[in-house]
């Protein structure tokens, strides 16, 4: 059988119009081989992929697949320990390659939006701005349904500032009967999350 290079060279010689005898002499093959190549109309030689050789880890494939389908976060090191106890004699890298192909793809978490009725809830927070004359704090109040934003800048982040700012934002929103519920867990030293809820 001709190699890939020999068949490419023969094809080139045939295109150039060389005789079969001349091609056979140049390639160092018999004239019959050239004749067979031309009469059968062979192109480049076809190479079939060899079937994969049996591996030491093949007997554990089903076990590993079941474990990864049940617990996809299991590490290769943990699985290596498990199958070693079951009699695996192969290398760790062989297991790692198989685990990479068997592990199910990680599911992308879907965010569930928190929806409220119009005028039912607002969220408030402070943002800090550094200026040449010191820190300035912006009180931001956002209506949860319409995403309408109200902003006002203050020099302090005390309770009086928050209450007066919320009162002004409520007047701006046109919501006279509103009470505020303050969450007790600050996000950082200068970020106090607030939730404003209208009674139903």
Percent range for β-strand residues: 15-25%
Q: In the residues, how many domains can be counted? A: 3
Would you count the extended β strands for me? 5
Number of helices: 7
- Could you estimate the helical fraction of the residues in percent? 25-40%
Radius of gyration: 38 Å
Describe this structure in words.
- Helix content is 38%, strand content 18%.
- It has 200 residues and is an alpha+beta fold.
- It has three domains: 4-40; 58-102; 121-197, no CATH class.
- A hairpin with a 5-residue loop joins strand 2 and strand 3 (149-154).
- It is elongated and about 105 Å long.
Q: Topology of this structure?
A:
Blueprint: H1 4-16, H2 20-27, H3 31-40, H4 61-70, H5 76-85, H6 92-102, E1 121-131, E2 134-143, E3 149-154, H7 159-173, E4 179-182, E5 194-197
Antiparallel strand pairs: 1-2, 1-5, 2-3, 4-5
Helix pairs in contact: 2-3, 5-6
Quick tags:
single chain, 200 residues, alpha+beta, 3 domains, 5-stranded antiparallel sheet, 7 helices, 38% helix, 18% strand
Provide a concise account of the structure shown:
The protein contains 7 helices and 5 strands; from the N terminus they run ααααααβββαββ. With 200 residues, the protein is an alpha+beta fold. Strands 3-2-1-5-4 form a 5-stranded antiparallel sheet, covered by helices on one side.
